[in-house]
Design brief:
- The chain is of the alpha+beta class and 440 residues long.
- 24% of the residues lie in helices and 26% in strands.
- The strands form four sheets. A seven-stranded antiparallel β-sheet has the order 2-1-6-7-8-9-10. Strands 11-17-18-5-19-20 form a six-stranded mixed β-sheet, with helices on both faces.
- A hairpin with a 2-residue loop joins strand 6 and strand 7.
- Helix 5 crosses helix 6.
- The longest helix has 19 residues, at 300-318.
- It is globular, with a radius of gyration of 24 Å.
- GO terms for molecular function: ATP binding; ATP hydrolysis activity.
- It comes from Eisenbergiella massiliensis.
- InterPro entries: ATPase_AAA_core, P-loop_NTPase.
Length: 440
Amino acid sequence: MLLEFRTSNYKSFKDELVFSLTPAPKQKGLDYSILEETIGKKTYKGLCSAIIYGPNASGKTNIIGAMDTFKSIVLRGNIRNDNDKSDPNAAAGTLELIPNSSSQNNLPVSFAVKFISEERLIEYSFTVDLGGFLESHYKRRILTETLSVDGSVIFSRNGGLKIEDLTVIRNMLVNAFEQNAEGAIALAVSNLNEEELFLMNGFKTMFSSKLVSLISEWLDNKFMVIYRADALHLIRKFSDAGKKSVYVEKTINEAAACFGINSNALGYIVDGESNEAKLCSVFKNMEKGTAIPAELFESYGTIRYVNMFPLVVNALLNGGTLVVDEFDASLHPMALMNIINIFHNDEINIHHAQLIFNTHNPIFLNANLFRRDEIKFVERDEANHCSIHYALSDFGTAGKKGVRNNEDYMKNYFVDRYGAIRDIDFTPIFEELLHRGNEV
């Protein structure tokens, strides 16, 4: 369960961005959408969803991009560029794209996450010096790095390395660590690499591979960040697949039928050599049955939904946090509302899954769908091109700017009570074009 993500000097977010999934205080009457996890004697609460609003180029996608970049850096364990260019988020592998382009000085870039997994509260952060924007040959350095578990600092790094209290993870330490503790600590301190995260290197090999595995598992399989969802292509593989086989998965097909398909069924055509499958439309009423690539027959919305649905299933069954850039693009609002309500349903969302997405559709600005602290905004200063982020709950409930639960959020948004909206008028451009055309 994600509780908080923070970053600074990431693209348009020059100042610190704090994206919180912890319920805001004093939200009276809003007791739904709350997840609870108990660790020892303390109970932690988290929101099961969040929706992000803002005009084009305000920085909404940069929030998701920052999460994806953080995840990528931690899993590879260093701040060197990644040679794999398949990620649609270029900044995840080409780190000179990260620093804010308006900065005159080399400001550090920071990332931090706070989450709960396997009844452990994990807080991990690091700060790096990546140089300036597009400074590709800069000698990068990790400035700080801190790991805390259940409120206790495990190690801190600030110039040097300090191993703190390991008591809280005693049962997760490597075998015979206690007998070799002094040597392991001395070796770790003397072998810090400026470009490598201590968590994924020295700490993993000399202190606790179990704890690092817990963190890696959450990042890799439960923190599902989909940057550029329009480019998502889900690759399916089937073991022992026969040549030119067609597979129809019951759950996926039933979900697609609810959403709307043009054929009898949706399945997967499997290439017997690679076992990779491509989505296809299946026609059962033709002789011997026929299957053709789905993009030739189904709507773009249907294909996008089918590619996305397994991720929703995975989140709900495994308690994952699904973060999607423009999740609702090409999807009917009624379909998305149903998915949102499933995440809000305590009888179905028993594993504490979370859904986060950005959107331009104002229909979700609704007190019957989202709490005030689940509605987030991003706006960008036209003078310095820097983004700021805030929640609807930040307005409070009292005074002229207060937001009450029974108010019309959508109406107020369009009259610019909350900000994060831009008045756009193309009329002068076309008037000028017509004027120049008449002169010619």
